[in-house]
Every structure is written in structure tokens, then in C-alpha cells.
């Protein structure tokens, strides 16, 4: 038999396998005829990221891209636009080098620009897709809204103002439609979670402190991401505002913007627009021409009244809490969602006043999202500190200048813990000057982790008491609750209900006993058959040779591991190690708890 010769592929012929499906980054740059910066920027805007081939044919120290992704970039109109911008920037540099200042300024005014609207529609054909991918977008926008303007990092003031505007518009919608679900304060910042159209959106906002920009961060890559995220969030805000019959974008007065009152002007403008939108169905019986004329007159009157009030400084200057009036009449009463109704009623009929030392922006966003009314110390505040109808004052200082007996003074953590528990917690543990209870994360499943903190159990009992549910007392299991006599003694049920429960329990017990007896008879019959076939010694030997179920489970695990690939086996071992670490951590926590209890006693 003649052995087959190895296939020889001369240079320049068609490639096969991974070499045909993937290219390195340097090959992709050479194919597109762009610089590394332009390639990185274009791939970020288009949503194309490196791939991980099974076999890295050029080595492990290379970045690989799919051939189809590179071909997708090759036909992108933005590629030609970037080339035009680069050529135009060379003209400006040439004019500056020749010290022709007039020509340089003229060229700067005519510099070509581009928009990313088409890319947003291309990457997110459905609105749900955009909501699903909004976590990183909101985190980035809120981060840059809190950063200072730094020239060396190319972070200008206009960019920060735009991020702040977009973030306030998003917070206004979430607050006024009661879509906020969870809040958690950590060292990194404040985590929020909202639920919009069935999608859970989680984002992180930095604390209101002076931000320091480190030198080891590539800000050009972050600014490229931010450029796309600004357009995406603008699209999302537009759709969300139109879903509640509010016009977008709002028209703001430049004077109020200069006085930092843009958000209050924004809220008043949206409220006026939502009112005009509610008047439209009433005029449906009239003719179309009359409708258009009436709508124009109403719009002109509302805008003129708003403009006059703004110019006369009758509207108070903006504070972060002014955005909470954003969608007061935007038709938020028609939700069918149970969570939304529950969140809307949490702080109902409660009036809050914020001290100067508390995180004001966060509280002004969070409290109205759960039905509360809030004010602060400032010119634009809805009511003053001396208002007798205030129920709670949020402070973080042990000494207060003047205390009102008609209200409760609590720490800010009480607000966040009430939100996560969805009930009004007792304020004794959160009084001013006391160490508050531990701030538990609502994103952690305590049952899945295997360790439930004491305060989590306390909150669970308070929730059950609020819902009139019966939970076992500390040291009492669920099996004790199944006994009707115990429930009768505790006073949870009446005597007639207890007698009926006893009868049903006895009936179930007799049926269960009968079932067990039948099973025992069947087993005895099987044993008798075996004993007839063999001797008593063989029967004893067979009984002794019954395999241990634990040993069987271990053998099955080892057999399944042997059949796995090296990668899957490594993943399984990593999961097992993680479980062992969790059990060790939980046992350590339990030991600490025992030591603390023993030291207290």
C-alpha cells in the first residue's frame, strides 16, 4: 500500500483552519490601512472585540480578530470619515506652522463632524436590547459627571455638563415612574438597580467627593466608550420620555443654566408639556384644524408663562432634588406592576428634611422614587426646616442646634435599609449618635450563601409581621409550626381550626403508616424469595456486600471526571475549591458569632 504524501501548500495559496478564520491585530491594521488608535476607536464604536481561537497559530502573545469582523469594519462609512478628519487636521497644523492664525481659525470652524446615531440603531435594533446593555453605559456616564475637567486627559467642561444632564434626565425618569428597586452603599460608590420593561439595570455612581485621576489609566479608550454611550443614553431617554407623553429634549433658559437652575427649569418644562399632552384627547371630537390651532395656542401660552417666570426669577434656583418634580403629571398612576405599586407606597404621607452633611443627591433621587416628599436647606427648597409637618429629618451629626419634638431624627442608612426591606423599619437603632445595624447588600442571596446574618433574620421577621405571616420563633423549627397544638397555644389559630387540623394530621399519619407497612411486606417477600434460592450464609454475605451509597456517589464522580476534558476538569475543580472556601468562611463567621455572644454574656 502506497503511503499518501503530505499535502504541500505553496506560499500565497488559500489558508485553512484557524489561520483562515482569524487574523492578528497587526494584520487587521495593515488590511484596513489605519493606525492603531483609529482601529481601536472604530472597533469600540462598532462593538467588535477580540476573539479567542482554539489554537493560536501565531502564538499566545497576539490579539486575534475574526476575518468577518475585519471585513465588517472595512465597509464602514466612518472609516472614510476618520480619514477625512485626519487629513483636515493636517491642514490646520500646516496653517499653524506657517503662523497663519486667520486660516487656522477658519479651518477649525469648518472641521468635518460625524454622528453615531446610525451605529446605535445598527447595534440595537430593538429597545429591549439597548436596555439590556445599559449597565456599563450608565456607570460610565455617572462617573464622568462627577469628574473634574482635566486638560491633559482631554476631559473638557462641556463633556462633564452633558454627562450630568443625561444622568439627571435618567434619574428623573426612574424616580418619577417609581422604577427603582435596590440601593446599596459600598466603598466603591452607590449601587442602584432599576427595572424597566422587565429588564433589571444595575449601575454604580461615585460618592460626592473630590475625584483624583490616576496616571495609569488610558483615558482615550474611556472617552471613546463615553462618546458612544452618550448617544445611546440620549436615544434611551428620548424613548422613555415619549413613553410617558413628555417631549424630549427639553428647552432650557440660558440664564437659569448660568445660575445652575437648569434641572428645575427642565422639570417645569416637562410638567407643562405633560399637561398639554393630557388635554389632547379631550379635543378629539373637534375638527383637525381647530385642534392644531388650540394646541399651538396652549403651547405658546405655557412656554411664554414659563419663560416669564424664569426671567423674573420666580422659579427657585436648581438643586439636585429639583429633578424629583420632573414627571409629576406624566401618567404614572396606571402601572399594573405589583413592585411599582409597592415602591410607590413605601414613604407615602412622609415628609423628609435633609441635613447639610448627608449625601443629598442620592437621597433626593431615592426618597421620591418610593413615594416620599423631600426638602433640603437651600433657596430652591419646597419647604423650610421649621415646617411642622416634617415627619423625619435625616442627619449625620450627634449635635443639633435646634431639635423639633414633632419629628424623628435618623441616620441616612435608615432610608436605604427601608428601601431594601420594602418596609418601614423601627428607628430606634438608627437614632443619631448610635452605631447603626450592619448595612446588608440586597444583591446577595443569604440562603444560597449558606449564612444568614442576625439582622437579616430580624428584617425577615419584621416583613412577616407586616404581611401578617407566621414565621418560626428563634430556636423553633418549621416542624413545630406544623403542630396545631403549638399554634393554638401561641394564639395563631382558633380551637375549632386546631381540632380540624388534628383530625387531618391523624388521617395523614394513618395513611402514611399503612403505606410503610405495605412497603415492608413487599421487601420481606423479596427477601424470602432470595433465601429460598440460597442458604442463610449467602444471604448474610449478600447483606454485608451491599455497597455504600456514599462510595457509589464518589465512584460516579471520579468516572465523570475521567471522561471530562482537561479544561472542564479544571473548571469543576475551581468550583469545588470555591465551595470549600465558602464553607470555611461561613464556619469562621459562625465561630466569631459564638465568641461575641459568649463575651457579651
TrEMBL record:
Domain BRCT: 342-432
Any one GO molecular-function label of the UniProt entry: ribonucleoprotein complex binding
Gene Ontology terms describing biological process: maturation of 5.8S rRNA from tricistronic rRNA transcript (SSU-rRNA, 5.8S rRNA, LSU-rRNA); maturation of LSU-rRNA from tricistronic rRNA transcript (SSU-rRNA, 5.8S rRNA, LSU-rRNA)
Listed Basic and acidic residues bias regions: 533-543
Keyword terms of this UniProt record: Coiled coil, Nucleus, Ribosome biogenesis, rRNA processing
Compositional bias ranges of the Polar residues kind: 280-292
Record keyword Coiled coil present: yes
Subcellular location: Nucleus, Nucleolus; Nucleus, Nucleoplasm
Pfam families per record: BRCT_2, Pescadillo_N
One GO location term (cellular component): PeBoW complex
Gene3D superfamilies xref list: BRCT domain (3.40.50.10190)
Coiled coil: 78-105
Region (Disordered): 280-299, 523-576
Family: Belongs to the pescadillo family.
Free-text function comment from the UniProt entry: Required for maturation of ribosomal RNAs and formation of the large ribosomal subunit.
Protein name, as recorded: Pescadillo homolog
Amino acid at each position: 500500500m502506497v503511503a499518501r504524501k503530505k499535502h504541500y501548500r505553496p506560499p500565497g495559496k488559500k489558508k485553512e483552519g484557524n489561520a483562515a478564520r482569524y487574523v492578528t491585530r497587526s494584520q487587521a491594521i495593515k488590511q484596513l490601512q489605519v493606525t492603531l488608535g483609529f482601529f481601536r476607536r472604530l472597533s469600540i464604536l462598532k462593538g467588535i472585540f477580540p476573539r479567542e481561537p482554539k489554537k493560536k497559530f501565531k502564538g499566545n502573545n497576539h490579539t486575534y480578530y475574526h476575518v468577518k469582523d475585519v471585513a465588517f469594519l472595512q465597509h464602514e462609512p466612518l472609516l472614510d470619515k476618520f480619514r477625512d478628519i485626519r487629513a483636515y487636521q493636517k491642514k490646520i497644523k500646516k496653517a499653524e506652522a506657517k503662523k497663519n492664525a486667520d486660516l487656522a481659525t477658519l479651518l477649525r470652524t469648518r472641521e468635518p463632524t460625524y454622528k453615531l446615531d446610525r451605529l446605535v440603531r445598527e447595534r440595537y435594533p430593538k429597545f429591549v436590547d439597548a436596555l439590556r446593555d445599559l449597565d456599563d453605559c450608565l456607570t460610565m456616564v455617572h462617573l464622568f459627571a462627577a469628574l473634574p475637567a482635566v486638560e491633559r486627559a482631554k476631559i473638557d467642561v462641556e463633556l462633564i455638563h452633558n454627562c450630568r444632564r443625561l444622568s439627571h434626565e435618567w434619574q428623573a425618569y426612574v424616580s418619577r415612574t417609581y422604577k427603582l428597586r435596590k440601593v446599596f452603599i459600598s466603598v466603591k460608590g452607590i449601587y442602584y438597580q432599576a427595572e424597566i420593561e422587565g429588564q433589571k439595570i444595575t449601575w454604580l455612581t461615585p460618592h460626592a467627593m473630590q475625584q483624583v485621576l490616576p496616571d495609569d489609566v488610558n483615558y482615550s479608550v474611556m472617552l471613546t466608550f463615553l462618546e458612544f454611550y452618550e448617544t445611546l443614553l440620549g436615544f434611551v431617554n428620548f424613548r422613555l420620555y415619549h413613553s410617558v407623553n413628555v417631549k424630549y429634549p427639553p428647552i432650557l433658559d440660558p440664564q437659569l443654566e448660568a445660575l445652575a437652575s437648569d434641572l428645575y427649569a427642565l422639570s417645569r418644562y416637562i410638567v407643562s408639556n405633560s399637561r398639554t399632552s393630557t388635554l389632547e384627547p379631550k379635543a378629539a371630537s373637534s375638527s383637525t384644524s381647530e385642534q392644531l390651532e388650540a394646541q399651538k395656542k396652549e403651547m405658546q401660552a405655557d412656554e411664554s408663562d414659563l419663560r416669564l417666570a424664569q426671567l423674573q426669577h420666580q422659579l427657585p434656583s436648581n438643586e439636585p432634588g429639583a429633578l424629583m418634580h420632573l414627571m409629576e403629571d406624566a401618567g404614572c398612576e396606571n402601572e399594573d406592576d405589583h413592585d411599582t405599586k409597592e415602591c410607590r407606597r413605601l414613604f407615602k404621607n412622609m415628609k423628609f428634611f435633609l441635613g447639610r452633611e448627608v449625601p443629598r443627591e442620592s437621597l433626593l433621587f431615592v426618597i421620591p422614587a418610593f413615594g416620599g416628599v423631600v426638602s433640603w436647606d437651600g433657596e430652591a427648597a419646597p419647604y423650610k426646616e421649621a415646617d411642622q409637618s416634617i415627619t423625619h429629618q435625616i442627619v449625620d451629626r450627634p449635635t443639633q442646634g435646634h431639635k423639633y419634638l414633632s419629628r424623628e431624627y435618623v441616620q441616612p442608612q435608615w432610608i436605604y435599609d427601608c428601601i431594601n426591606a420594602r418596609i418601614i423599619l423601627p428607628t430606634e437603632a438608627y437614632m443619631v449618635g448610635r452605631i447603626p445595624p450592619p448595612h446588608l447588600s440586597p444583591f446577595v442571596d443569604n440562603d444560597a450563601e449558606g449564612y444568614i446574618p442576625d439582622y437579616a433574620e430580624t428584617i425577615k421577621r419584621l416583613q412577616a409581621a407586616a404581611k401578617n405571616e407566621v414565621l418560626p420563633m428563634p430556636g423553633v423549627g418549621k416542624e413545630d409550626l406544623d403542630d396545631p397544638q403549638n399554634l393554638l397555644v401561641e394564639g395563631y389559630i382558633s380551637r375549632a381550626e386546631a381540632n380540624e387540623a388534628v383530625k387531618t394530621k391523624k388521617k395523614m399519619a394513618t395513611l402514611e403508616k399503612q403505606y410503610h407497612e405495605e412497603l415492608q411486606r413487599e421487601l420481606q417477600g423479596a427477601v424470602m424469595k432470595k433465601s429460598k434460592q440460597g442458604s442463610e450464609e449467602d444471604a448474610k454475605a449478600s447483606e454485608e456486600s451491599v455497597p455504600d451509597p456514599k462510595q457509589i456517589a464518589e465512584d460516579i464522580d471520579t468516572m465523570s471526571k475521567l471522561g471530562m476534558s482537561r479544561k472542564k476538569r479544571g473548571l469543576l475543580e475551581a468550583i469545588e475549591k470555591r465551595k470549600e472556601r465558602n464553607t470555611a468562611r461561613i464556619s469562621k463567621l459562625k465561630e466569631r458569632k459564638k465568641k461575641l455572644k459568649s463575651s457579651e454574656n
